[in-house]
């Protein structure tokens, strides 16, 4: 028996319940871990509300990131033994492999073993944000030293990961944030420049920062009317990678800028990296190297107890956090 978080209908954070259930042993090719920490992601709030790319099957679990200790291994699993300290690369389906639980089971190929000194909270906070940012900036855009990269929703865990990755490569990260409340924190987190979109002319600021070369890479989680000033400031042949859709307003297609500059506008899901063993191996090596040399360092916005999962989700949806929300068990 183990405690798990489930919900039986769509809604706000209050629909989440902690229930005690029987947990079956891991199947062939799976590893079961005793979870010590969870990393929260906006995708979990979307699943809970019924607006995610995956549909809940009630009663539904949820959760994409965890770190803990190997409890049991299924048949045909090699390289792991009970007691190993591990974390989880986010699975393709959180309904099939939910992480919010005292005992959670995942495909063995998504289990990563690492030194205990990494710490459970840090380990639970790293894979989604760094894989998402790496896949876009390095794997797809081929970010280079000296490139100007504009990062929207910059105070999110993925936005902060993108800033750190850009700095590790030697690119110039420009953070976009709605209000000035997080301006200093973003500079302290490594942003070379910060643009407050509610108070400044985004296009003019980007043009002033990038100069005649323009912004080669835009990493956007928002969409909406910002597409116009973002693409106006882009370099010829530049690429805009869209991985979200936070804006409630329609997203115009910037036809003039796309045509005159031969721009690439590309949708992106981290799943395309996770499901490709070669790309995933490259990403894992880059991230683990960055954690080892200190150039990558997850920023924790707040830590909650497992029993306070509802409050953790309320904080997640408040947009007040700066970085990753972690839940400990």
UniProtKB/TrEMBL annotation:
One of its GO terms (molecular function) is oxidoreductase activity, acting on NAD(P)H. It holds the Pfam family ADH_N. It comes from the Bacteria. The keyword NADP applies. Gene3D superfamilies: Medium-chain alcohol dehydrogenases, catalytic domain (3.90.180.10), NAD(P)-binding Rossmann-like Domain (3.40.50.720). Keywords: NADP, Oxidoreductase. Transmembrane segments: none annotated. InterPro entries: ADH-like_C, ADH-like_N, ER, GroES-like_sf, NAD(P)-bd_dom_sf. Residues 11-327 form the Enoyl reductase (ER) domain. This is NADPH:quinone reductase.
């Amino acid at each position: 028996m183990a405690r798990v978080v489930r919900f039986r209908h769509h809604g706000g954070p209050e629909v989440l319940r902690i229930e005690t259930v029987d947990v079956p042993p891991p199947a062939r090719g799976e590893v079961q871990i005793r979870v010590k920490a969870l990393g929260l992601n906006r995708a979990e709030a979307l699943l809970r509300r019924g607006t995610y790319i995956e549909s809940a099957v009630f009663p539904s679990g949820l959760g994409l990131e965890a770190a803990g200790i190997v409890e049991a291994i299924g048949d045909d699993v090699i390289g792991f033994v009970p007691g190993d300290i591990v974390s989880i690369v986010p699975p393709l389906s959180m309904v099939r492999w939910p992480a919010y639980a005292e005992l959670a089971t995942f495909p063995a190929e998504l289990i990563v073993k690492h030194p205990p000194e990494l710490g459970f909270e840090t380990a639970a906070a790293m894979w989604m944000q760094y894989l998402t940012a790496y896949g876009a900036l390095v794997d797809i855009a081929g970010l280079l030293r000296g490139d100007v990269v504009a990062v929207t929703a910059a105070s999110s865990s993925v936005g902060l990961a993108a800033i750190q990755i850009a700095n590790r490569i030697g690119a110039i990260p420009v953070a976009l944030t709605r209000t000035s409340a997080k301006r200093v924190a973003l500079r302290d987190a490594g942003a070379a420049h910060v643009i407050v979109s509610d108070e400044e002319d985004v296009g003019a600021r980007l043009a002033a920062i990038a100069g005649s070369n323009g912004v080669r890479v835009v990493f956007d989680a928002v969409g909406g009317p910002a597409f116009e000033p973002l693409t106006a400031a882009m370099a010829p042949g530049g690429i805009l990678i869209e991985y979200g859709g936070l804006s409630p307003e329609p997203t115009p297609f910037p036809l003039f800028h796309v045509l005159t500059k031969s721009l690439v506008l590309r949708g992106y899901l981290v799943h395309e990296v996770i499901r490709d063993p070669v790309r995933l191996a490259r990403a894992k090596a880059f991230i683990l190297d960055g954690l080892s040399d200190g150039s990558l360092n997850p920023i924790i916005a707040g830590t909650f107890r497992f029993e306070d999962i509802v409050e953790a989700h309320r904080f997640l949806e408040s947009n007040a956090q700066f970085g990753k929300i972690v839940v400990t068990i």
